[in-house]
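Q: Got a minute? One more chain.
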Amino acid sequence: MNGWNASDIPDQSGRTAVVTGANSGIGFVTARELARRGARVVLACRDVTRGEAAEELMRAQVPGADVRLARLDLADLSSVRAFAADLKEDRLDLLVNNAGVMALPHRRTVDDFEMQLGTNHLGHFALTGLLLPLLREAGPGARVVTVSSGLHFLGTVDPRDVQMDHRYRRWIAYGRSKSANLLFTHELARRLKAEGSDVVAVAAHPGYAATNLQTAGARMEDRAWAERAAELLNRVLAQSAEDGALPSLYAATAPGVRQDDFFGPRVMLWRGAPAPSPRAAWTRDDRASAGLWAVSERMTGVTYD
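A: Always. Here it is, folded:
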C-alpha cells in the first residue's frame, strides 16, 4: 500500500460502477480513473447541466471512456427510486457513495429530512438498498464504498434527536452524518458477512482535499468573506482532489480489502497515500449501527432483504 497511486488500479474491464456526485471533485476523479482502467461508469449527478459538462471533460481526458450520465438527487427519495428503477446496466460491480454536502445552514430535503443527514446518509442508504440485488448478482469483487470524513470524530448520531431538531449546529450535524456513513458501513458489512455474500462494504475518506464542499455553505448564505477564506485554505493547506480520491479508489479496487475496512490519507488523516485510517470507537458499535439501520429503514421506506 505504501505509495499507492492511480497507476496501481487493477484492470477494471468488464466491470460496471455507479459513482454519485461524479460531476466534480473527488467523485469526478474517482469516476474518471475507473473509466481509464476500463470500467463502464454511470455518473450519478444531481445537476444535469454540470453533469453533462463533466461527462464531456471526462471523455476529453480519457478518450474512449465508457461513461454515461444519469440524474440522481440524493435529497429526494423519489429521485433515488427513479434512478434505481431506470438503471439500464444489466450488472453492477461497484457502488461508490461519494456525493455529499458539508456544514450547510439549516435546510430540509424534499422528504423533510435535515439536509446533511438526508443527503450524506439517508439518500445513500436508500440507493444502496435498491441496488444491492444487482451487486449481489455480480459475484466476487462487488463492493459498496461509502465516503465518510475524518470529521466524523465531531460526534455520533443521537438516537433521541437523529435530525438535530432541538439545536442545530452545522459542523456537528456534518460530523454526525459522517459517523452515520461509518455506522451504515459497519452494519451492512455485518449483514453481508452473516448471509455469506460476496459483496464487500468498505469506507474511505479523502482527508483535507480541495473541493467545492468547503465553499458551498458560505455561498448559500452569501457570506463572501467565508467563501474567500475557504478558497484560501484550499489553496494553502489542502491536497488536490486527485490525491483526495485515492482512498476511495483503493477501497474500490485494491485486492485484499475486507468487510468494514476504512481507508484515508496516511499523514494525520489529512494527506498522503491511502492507508488504514483510525475511526471513532462508536462507529463499530453493533447496537448503535443496528439502531441507526432500523431508523433509516423507517425514514426512507427502503428495507433490505
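A: Confidence is low (pLDDT under 50) at residues 214-237.
Q: Perfect, thanks.
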